[in-house]
TrEMBL record, chain A:
InterPro entries in UniProt: MlaB-like_STAS, STAS_dom, STAS_dom_sf
PANTHER family referenced in this protein's UniProt entry, alphabetically: ANTI-SIGMA FACTOR ANTAGONIST TM_1081-RELATED (PTHR33495:SF2), ANTI-SIGMA FACTOR ANTAGONIST TM_1081-RELATED-RELATED (PTHR33495)
Listed CDD domains: STAS_anti-anti-sigma_factors
Name used for this protein in its record: Sulfate transporter
GO molecular function: anti-sigma factor antagonist activity
Annotated organism of origin: Streptomyces noursei
PROSITE patterns the record matches: STAS
Length: 123, 547
């Protein structure tokens, strides 16, 4: 069960859906080993495109998301909120929905930007 | 036949050739005297004039070679070598038909010097490689200092003293004098008492090796029975950005002082010794930090408090990280009528970051205990204390306040982003406690719903981390233990004491994962004792297992 198989390795691909909308497709496992990589990659995309209005993350191929994966999603949300970009977690597998529901982060991560316009703490 | 005119012409020619030869040349006649010596030879051995006895003018090694040559000619023997007038020569012999021997000397001083240097360099390289191996074979600082001292005394000087950077007032010193190394702790000795030592121990800015006047060396620096010191040099031991210490090399009075090449070689050795010592020091510090954290994080002992049974089981993940992300705490009620608070949590991530966050949460909750009458307020304050703009590390937790009321236990249970705990009823029904809330540490605002709960005798509340339900194993090794399996298992636990319930859950999960990799697994049970255990409320934790 710990064999590294291609399906488990995190794979990201990005497509510009429109002039101000970017879609990032996530496949594989978003976990303690790949969370930082995911976070960095998305941060780079955000930095590379000014004027972005929406970031759509296609989670359909996400086979696992652990607590570090959730932490990375929360950081991505914090970044998009700060930039005024709306974040959409699309095609969420049931396991991800369950994780977001149990941890009480579903509303936070999926609310429209106006409702989630909470600024990150600046301590 | 050759006539005399021809002969003298021959002589004139050979004389000219002899004197023009670019090498010192000597012609010895069969009776053991000098027949001829050219100017170059005369410069080396002024006494070697025509007619002088070989045994009086030639250096011993050449005389010996000459005697051997006439006794038993050995054409393939290597040419003899030796010194003349402070330089090194190789001597080549040519035998003339009339029994005379011509010795040609070729100067190989530079070749010999180069050979010696090459050999020395090889030895030094081999020594440095061996030293690195020996120095790095232990991560124990004392052992490392002893190895450094012993090697330095054996290869670099007559004695060596390795000094670690001071800790407090004590200076840790290892002296080695070739017979072995021994260490000492010196208190009240100021590094300033040795010129250059304080600078070398500071490590920054880098200082060069420094010669000290042996007379200025304090007594503690010189090994016992060493005798008069001839030369002494202080070399800093460079570490990985931290001062690693200093090396003092000593030579006895009758030995040559340190040459420039020996000094630079000593610096190469010092670099290796310093790297090994600072690695050992960093490791020791790291191990101490981990140990301190572990001691702090060790799950508390639990038992019966105020007529309420508590039990806990914890199994750390087996993947090398010693500090895991699960934790629990039980804060016993101060008085019998008060509530005890139990907290079970799961911090995201592992290792030092997780340990620090865990410590922060436990300390904050402890400080907020007076507010435990309102779980949601407590969680909001905790959330505010954990928020950081630098990261989104979070924790999920569940807390339960419990107190005994007659034979029942009254509870308030609140989940903050954590899997809801399960309640095991006396008839074997298992239900989820209806509480939910946001995780703590990331969201600017959080909310939670506290559920009231009453346990009849023999009923239990079971708090667990997802390490239990998400452990993978089973017959095929890749199946989740899952909520359903946990509920079925708990259905058999109706009427059991808290200890037995916790043990049962832990045992099943452990069996389920088998040898598989697993996350931290923690379970805490709160049980209303059955009728027989009529203990006086207000007891203190007495028994149970911590881990």
């Amino acid at each position: 069960m710990t064999d590294p198989s291609p399906a488990r390795i995190l794979h990201l691909s990005s497509t510009a859906v429109g002039p101000d909308v970017l879609r990032i497709t996530v496949r594989g496992e978003l976990d303690v080993d790949s969370a930082a990589e995911f976070q960095d990659a998305v941060t780079e995309h955000l930095a590379a495109r000014s004027g972005l209005r929406a970031l759509r993350v296609d989670c359909g191929g996400l086979v696992l998301c652990d607590s570090m994966g959730l932490s990375a999603l929360l950081m991505v949300h914090r970044r998009t909120t700060a930039l005024g970009v709306s974040l959409h977690l699309e095609e969420r597998p049931p396991a991800l929905d369950r994780l977001l529901a149990v941890t009480g982060t579903l509303d936070h991560l999926t609310a429209p930007p106006a409702a989630a316009a909470s600024t990150p703490p600046s301590s | 036949m050759v006539n005399s005119a021809e002969r003298s012409a021959d002589n004139a020619w050979s004389d000219a050739a002899l004197h023009a030869a670019p090498y010192p040349v000597l012609v010895a006649d069969p009776v053991g005297t000098v027949r001829r010596a050219n100017e170059a030879f005369g410069l080396l051995v002024p006494d070697a004039v025509e007619g002088s006895a070989l045994c009086e003018v030639l250096p011993d090694w050449l005389l010996l070679a000459h005697d051997r040559l006439s006794a038993a000619p050995a054409p393939h023997a290597p040419p003899p070598r030796g010194e003349v007038a402070g330089r090194s020569f190789e001597a080549h012999a040519t035998r003339l038909p009339e029994g005379e021997v011509v010795w040609w000397l070729t100067d190989d001083t530079d070749v010999r010097l180069a050979e010696r240097r090459l050999l020395q360099e090889r030895n030094r390289t081999a020594f440095l490689a061996r030293a690195s191996n020996e120095l790095l074979s232990s991560l124990n600082l004392d052992r490392c200092m002893e190895v450094a001292g012993r090697l330095a005394a054996a290869h670099l000087a007559d004695a060596a003293v390795v000094i670690a950077p001071p800790r407090g007032r004590a200076l840790s010193v290892v002296s080695a004098d070739g017979t072995g190394a021994h260490s000492r702790q010196l208190t009240g000795v100021a590094p300033e008492s040795v010129p250059g030592l304080a600078e070398a121990l500071r490590g920054f800015p880098p200082v060069p090796s420094r010669w000290i006047d042996p007379a200025a060396a304090p007594e503690w620096l010189v090994p016992e029975d060493f005798g008069p010191v001839g030369a002494m040099v202080v070399t800093p031991l460079p570490g990985h950005g931290v001062p690693a210490g200093a090396l003092v090399l000593l030579r006895r009075a009758h030995h040559a002082a340190f040459s420039e090449s020996e000094e630079s070689f000593a610096r190469l050795f010092a670099a290796r010794a310093g790297a090994a010592m600072s690695a050992a020091r960093l490791y020791a510090e790291q191990a101490q930090i981990t140990e301190t954290l572990m001691r702090e994080l060790l799950p508390p002992r639990v038992g019966q408090v105020g007529g309420v049974e508590f039990a806990a089981r914890y199994r750390a993940a087996k993947d090398g990280e010693r500090v895991g992300g699960d934790f629990y705490d039980i804060h016993p009620a101060a008085a019998p009528q008060d509530e005890s608070l139990v907290v079970l949590g799961d911090v995201c991530g592992k290792g030092l970051d997780a340990a620090v966050l865990t410590g922060k949460i436990r300390n904050t909750l402890h400080a907020l205990l007076p507010l435990s009458g309102d779980h949601v307020r407590m969680l909001r304050l905790l959330n505010g204390a954990l928020l950081s703009s630098h990261h989104t590390r979070f924790a999920t937790l569940v807390m339960a306040s419990a107190r005994r009321r007659a034979d029942r236990v009254e509870l308030r249970v609140t989940c903050a982003g954590h899997p809801a705990p399960l309640v095991v009823r006396a008839d074997g029904r298992v239900a989820e406690v209806e509480t939910h809330g946001n995780l703590v540490g990331v969201l600017p605002e959080i909310d939670a719903v506290t559920a009231p709960l009453i346990l009849a005798p023999g009923e239990s509340l079971v708090l667990f981390t997802d390490g239990i339900t998400e452990s993978k194993g089973g017959p095929l090794g890749d199946e989740l233990f899952g909520d359903a399996r946990l509920r079925r298992a708990l259905a058999h636990c109706a009427g059991m004491p808290a200890e037995a319930v916790a043990e049962h859950v832990q045992m099943l999960a452990t069996e389920w994962v088998g040898v598989n990799k697993h996350d931290d697994m923690a379970v805490v049970t709160v049980t209303a004792p059955r009728g027989s255990s009529r203990r006086a409320p207000g007891g203190t934790p007495t028994e149970g297992h911590g881990a």
